[in-house]
Amino acid sequence: MTATRTKKPRVLDTEMLYDLLLGARTADMVTLLFKDGRVEKGSLVFNQFKGGGRLINVDTETSLDFLVDELRDVRV
């Protein structure tokens, strides 16, 4: 018998997310993966002291405010 394993989405700890967000501030495009399943792309504005930021997508002319607690991963 083989056991079936469901792949659980990777969720980073808060300290790791802060490090990734701080490093991604200068990137042209960032992908944010949210705990609720959303995936959003854009340019990043991050305020580490407030624990959140804004993702701006100039192609779709939208912006999204977020808190670090809402994220599960950050990709540059």
Question: Could you write a compact summary of the structure shown?
Answer:
The protein is 14% helix and 41% strand. It has one helix and five strands.
Structure description:
- This protein is mainly beta and 76 residues long.
- It has one domain (14-75): SH3 type barrels.
- Helix content is 14%, strand content 41%.
- The protein contains one helix and five strands.
- Strands 4-3-2-1-5 form a five-stranded antiparallel sheet, with helices on one face.
- It is globular.
- The mean pLDDT is 88.
Highlighted features:
76 residues; mainly beta; SH3 type barrels; 5 strands
- Summed up, the domain count is 1
Structural class: mainly beta
CATH topology: the name is SH3 type barrels
Give the DSSP E fraction (strand runs of 2 or more residues): 35-45%
What is the C-alpha radius of gyration, as a whole number of Å? 14 Å
Largest sheet: 5 strands, antiparallel
- Per the principal axes of the C-alpha atoms, what is the gross shape? globular
* CATH domain class name: Mainly Beta
**Arithmetic mean of pLDDT:** 88
Q: How large is the count of helical segments?
A: 1
Q: Helices and strands, in N-to-C order?
A: HEEEEE
What is the strand tally? 5
Element layout with pairings:
Layout: H1 14-24, E1 30-34, E2 39-47, E3 52-57, E4 62-67, E5 71-75
Antiparallel strand pairs: 1-2, 1-5, 2-3, 3-4
